[in-house]
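Work through this protein:
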Amino acid sequence: MNILVFEDEGVEQLFPITTGRPAYAITCASYQLIDWLTRLSDNVVGSVRSYLELIQTLDFPSLSHQLDMNRRWTLVVNARLVPSVSNFRRIETLLDNMCEEGLATGQVQRDGWSIAFALLPTEALVNAERGQLVKSIAKACENIQKIGSEGEAVQLYQYPHDVVRANLEHFDANLEHRITNQSYQEVAENVFVAPGVKLHEFVVTETKSGPIVIDENTTIGPFCFLRGPVYIGPNCRLNEHAAVKDSTTISHTTKIGGEVESCVIESFTNKQHHGFLGHCYLGSWINLGAGTCNSDLKNTYGQVNMTYGNEKVPTGMQFVGCIMGDYAKTAINTSIFTGKVIGTCSMVYGFVTTNVPSFVNYARSFGQVTELPPAVMISTQQRMFCRRDVEQRPVDVQLLKEMYERTKRERQLSEEPLIL
């Protein structure tokens, strides 16, 4: 069986999370969707936006370049599918039924109008042209059986805050699955560590509400407090006195200090110093200055509404912090108001009281918002990569230029008068 994971038009509604990454590479509740899919087949093909194709080839080398036409069936999966145990089990059930019932035409599972995943005859995709894949999949799904009832909906990400919501909803089940299916040593009650983990003797753990999982070669400094459920990825460092708690997912090679609660933090991001982060999503290669804090609760204790472009979206959630795109930076003592979106490659100072477009210097509280040219971010990226012994490849430079072009509309729609 082939697996084809595809991006549809919904990925742009997830900006800035997906500005520079395939949607299947969003981390949530300790997993990425691609982690699940590569377990199901040895031939997984990714269909992403054209400017991410080379990044996909280099950063996801296990993915194949084309379908194996000798395999009768292809499982197509929307890249916006939440990487939850429940969604994974639905896919497994579909594949089990295929074997037991000998399907002739396939099956499809939707989230509203969007295709979440479907089992299709491979021949139905043989003539799909570049740029027309989503239409080909939709056409192939028109007359095949839908799985389950309306009450058994799967979950796709619709908006950036859905990542924060899904992380909370699926954290317990995903962490239980991780503990059951991977090799960890239980070093204290409900505290599981991989090889190479260094725990200082004065670390305090609390696991009444869920387990703590720490992956390989991570160091937890003295006087840290960990309250489960928590997942800390490989090669991370928690500085002394850090507090990490309540369904926080930390990806590999990050540095964490201060207080972090119910957040998703992607790889190579630094939040080394004191300050509070709650109910946030932080992309990769972010650096937060000392004292940076965000609010995740309105003074009225009401539900948080988000603004995306010109659209106001009710989240139905009482706690929502900030959404921050890759390469964003904050100065010391930056304060981010509830439910704000900070774009890719932006630098923010002072009080963040509005959404921040990508590629801007945002100092609104000091009376200035200026556009940030790609050349500045290219130089910054080179210095950041050098500090982590990561090579700056031509594809990384080109991605910054592509992201700049694709976020022009953000800056045009901004209510801030930009100084160019």
Summary: The chain is about 25% helix and 25% strand. The mean pLDDT is 92.
